[in-house]
UniProtKB/TrEMBL annotation:
It comes from the Bacteria. One of its GO terms (cellular component) is plasma membrane. Keywords: CBS domain, Cell membrane, Magnesium, Membrane, Metal-binding, Transmembrane, Transmembrane helix, Transport. It holds the Pfam family MgtE. It is a multi-pass membrane protein. GO terms for molecular function: magnesium ion transmembrane transporter activity; metal ion binding. Acts as a magnesium transporter. PROSITE patterns: CBS. This is Magnesium transporter MgtE. The keyword Ubl conjugation does not apply. Belongs to the SLC41A transporter family. The chain crosses the membrane at residues 294-314, 368-390, 396-420, 432-455.
């Protein structure tokens, strides 16, 4: 039974390996270091390299056998690949770059200075340079930048025997052979056929008789949307075509999942009010961590001045009924949490394609009902508890405020991600931090207006 690398046991084993390697590095014990590194699986080596500084990372990487070194390098984040290249010799760099798949090569090029990228491109064989340049020609964020041009296509007029022979000859350089695009004589995509179906069919069967209709994406389509489609349809490979439906590449399921993982990390960071990190946490400089957070903190601090202004306007009301001040944290906290819950739920539904901007009326209606239900439940509890502890008029104020705040927060929180998508902004940016600031100020305004009306102050 395989061990889950994320389990406590797996983490303990990784930490133990890191300590052993760091000890060998400090003691310059090359024999022990080599044995420790080569005893690890490739993905375990990746975990270790993500926890070392640049110098030690290069030393450890050089101790790997050539075949394992390539696999480890392919699984590093592009930012760490860039740092590692900076610490290696020129010959090592050229060989590593040439051995990468074209799509992985483009990701790395985006991280490198233009002069270095140009030099590495010039050192590629002509065929590899042509494939890489083709991918670089597509817009940033498009699936054309993430597809692999190394695929096996079969012609619909071929026999199964001919198709299988083509697959065998391309086993070494193809990205995948389990799901094969079917084309006509002009490279136009006409269908898909699985390797299983080819192997089941008689050798003289024509490919066109066993192929299936193809799902495909245009090379200029958004990479996250295409990756989501690939995952939702549970496809091993999704063909990518140009404007004339000629096949130019494929997106494999592992690349699709990597795109979705990266997009999810970005969303989670922005929902929390930070910019996403471009490399693993332990290798990110402290200055970069500060920069990823300080801008959002400044924006939110400026937004929070609205809350201060509301308190200043109702200073007289607070001085007349001092107990009102005791409930301010409860009310703004509940409102912020309610808005964040709604925003997070709708943002996730947007990412999964469950809702879109056209559904804003339906989302508003649902969140309005949810907000009223939550407000009634929480407001009733607050009314009873506050009434017994303080007095019933104050309990009425707190109960009505919770009803109003929950209704407003859920409705606004549900609408903001859809508004963001409509204006082509990132829905995650419009979520928790901004909603919290908005709901704090608006909730306090509702609170004091209700208090004035109920208490007659």
């Amino acid at each position: 039974m395989s061990q889950n690398p994320m389990s406590p046991t797996g983490e303990a084993a990784r930490d133990q390996a890191v300590r052993a390697i760091e000890k060998a590095l400090r003691g310059a014990d090359l024999a022990t270091l080599t044995a420790a590194v080569r005893a690890l699986a490739p993905m375990q080596v990746v975990d270790v390299l993500e926890r070392l500084d640049d110098k030690d990372r290069a030393v450890v990487y050089r101790l790997l056998p050539k075949d394992r070194a390539m696999e480890v390098f392919e699984n590093l984040d592009p930012s760490l690949q860039r740092d590692l290249l900076g610490a290696l010799q020129d010959d090592d760099v050229t060989a590593l770059f040439a051995d990468l798949d074209p799509d992985d090569r483009v990701e790395l090029l985006d991280e490198l200075p233009a002069t270095v990228a140009r030099r590495l491109m010039q050192g590629l064989p002509a065929h590899e340079r042509e494939m890489t340049a083709g991918i670089l020609g597509y817009p940033q964020g498009s699936i054309g930048r993430r597809m692999s041009p190394e695929f096996v296509a079969v012609d619909r007029s071929w026999t199964v025997e001919h198709a299988l022979d083509r697959v065998r000859r391309r086993l070494e350089d193809a990205e995948t052979v389990y799901s094969l695009p079917v084309t006509d004589g002009h490279r136009v995509l006409v269908g898909m056929v699985s390797l299983r179906e080819l192997m089941k069919a008689e050798p003289d069967t024509e490919v066109s008789t066993i192929m299936q209709p193809a799902n495909w994406a245009r090379a200029t389509d958004d990479s996250e949307e295409v990756a989501r489609r690939c995952a939702d349809l549970k496809l091993l490979a999704l063909p990518v075509v140009d404007n004339e439906t000629r096949i130019v590449g494929i997106l494999t399921v592992d690349d699709a999942l990597q795109i979705l993982e990266h997009a999810d990390s970005e969303d989670q960071a922005r929902i929390g009010g930070t910019e996403p990190l471009r490399q693993p946490y332990l290798t990110t400089p402290v200055g970069s961590l500060v920069r990823s957070r300080v801008v959002w903190l400044l924006v939110l601090a400026i937004g929070a001045t609205l809350t201060v202004q509301v308190l200043e306007v109702f200073e007289t009301t607070l001085s007349e009924v001092v107990a009102l001040a005791l409930f301010v944290p409860l009310l703004i906290g509940t409102g912020g949490n309610t808005g964040n819950q709604a925003a997070t739920t709708v943002t996730r539904a947007l990412a999964l394609g469950d809702v879109g901007p056209r559904d804003i009326a339906k989302v508003l209606a649902r969140e309005l009902r949810v907000g009223i239900s939550l407000g009634l439940l929480l407001g009733t509890v607050a009314f009873v508890v506050t009434g017994f502890v303080y007095d019933w008029p104050l309990g009425t104020v707190i109960g009505l405020t919770l009803l109003s705040v929950c209704t407003m927060a859920a409705t606004v929180g549900g609408a903001m991600p859809l508004v963001a998508r409509t204006i082509r902004a990132d829905p995650a940016v419009f979520s928790n931090p901004f909603i919290t600031t908005f709901v704090d100020a608006t909730g306090l305004l509702l609170y004091f207006l209700i208090a004035r009306a109920v208490l007659g102050i």
